[in-house]
Specification:
Number of helices: 5
Structural class: mainly alpha
Shape: globular
Distance between the termini: 72 Å
Strand content: under 5%
Order of helices and strands: HHHHHEE
Helix content: 55-70%
Largest sheet: 2 strands, antiparallel
Length: 194
């Protein structure tokens, strides 16, 4: 009889693990289908952020949750703007430091982000969903004087962005590109795609 119980228990464990595997496969397939639709993904995330802001404004609480969410989103944004290989750490002793190419005859190095756009979107959406979920529990509604949190966040944002912009200027990179670059050829003067 004990063997039947053990066999039955092992079978149900197997079915539970199969069900969990199947759910994760469906979830991943859904994420894979959403990957090419960046505008729709970001619009849905902005709508989720607006729902969160509306809850905070109407309920007049959960300011610590909002502050933590803002700090987390700021960290994600900085990782999104930063190159994967930091030029400040990648240089030879005789050089003044590495620089991205500024002329057509220099080596082309594409800008590779530390945090890719999809992972940035996914993390923002997931964290905002968790923050909305937290607003349903009174234990996360810690009383605090919210103008101080706003001031702290704005100060942190300004200091962090100033440092990031200085880094971008020093190492001559721009994290945003629009479309494929086109150059004029020297011989014919025609525009040529790269």
């Amino acid at each position: 009889m004990d063997e039947e119980l053990l066999g039955g228990s092992g079978g149900s464990k197997s079915k539970i693990s199969q069900m969990c595997t199947r759910i994760s496969q469906i979830y991943q397939a859904t994420l894979d289908k959403w990957t090419p639709y960046s505008r729709a993904r970001w619009l849905s995330t902005v709508a989720l952020l607006l729902v969160f802001a509306l809850r905070i404004i109407l309920l007049q609480g959960w300011y610590i949750v909002t502050y933590a969410l803002g700090i987390y989103h700021l960290n994600l944004f900085i990782a999104f703007l930063t190159p994967k290989i930091d030029p400040a750490m990648d240089f030879d002793a005789e050089d003044n430091g590495p620089e991205l190419p500024t002329r057509a005859n220099e080596e082309f190095k594409p800008f590779i982000r530390r945090l890719p756009e999809f992972k940035f979107w996914y993390s923002v959406t997931k964290s905002t969903t968790i923050a909305v979920f937290c607003t349903f529990f009174e234990c996360f509604n810690i009383p605090v004087f919210w103008p101080i949190l706003v001031m702290y966040f704005l100060t942190l944002f300004c200091i962090t962005m100033k440092r990031q912009i200085r880094h971008m200027i020093k190492y001559k990179y721009l994290p945003f590109t629009h479309g494929k670059p086109k150059y004029h050829t020297a011989e014919t003067g025609e525009i040529q795609d790269i």
